[in-house]
Amino acid sequence: MITEEQQKTVVVRPAGGLDAVYGIGLVGAWVFYFRRATSMRQRVQAFFKGLFWPGFLVYDVLAFLEKE
Fold first, then answer.
1. Contacts 24+ apart (CB under 8 A), 22-28
2. Which residues contact 51 (CB under 8 A, 6 or more apart)?
3. How far apart are CA 66 and CA 33, in angstroms?
4. With 0-12 CB in 10 A as exposed, 13-18 as middle and 19+ as buried, what is 47?
5. What is the pLDDT of residues 11-68, one digit of tens each?
6. For residues 48, 40, 32 and 64, what is the CA-based torsion angle, rounded to 10 degrees?
7. CA angle, corner 63, sides to 60 and 68, nearest 5?
8. Cα(18)–Cα(9) distance, rounded to whole angstroms?
């Protein structure tokens, strides 16, 4: 027989500090990319580039480190 204590699920969630960093980076990336967009296509690309800015950052850092 399963008791009530055995059925409880423990959910652990991080403090959320990185959410704020990502949010600030998201807004900054959108400002950066939207200021340079001149056509509708570039604005759509700017939206998605803003969402995925950490991937671009990691890629560029790794490409830079590979050159050394």
1. 22/54, 25/53, 25/54, 26/50, 26/51, 26/53
2. 26
3. 26
4. middle
5. 777 666 677 888 888 999 999 999 999 999 999 999 999 999 889 888 999 999 998 6
6. 60
7. 130
8. 25
Distance in angstroms (rounded) separating the CA atoms of residues 29 and 45: 12
Structure tokens at 22: 């990502």
**Contact (Cβ atoms closer than 8 angstroms) between residue 37 and residue 43:** yes
Question: What pLDDT is stored for residue 15 in this prediction?
Answer: 66
Two tokens, residue 29: 């990336």
pLDDT score at 37: 95
- Residue 32 confidence (pLDDT): 93
Q: Tokens 């959108």 correspond to what residue?
A: 30
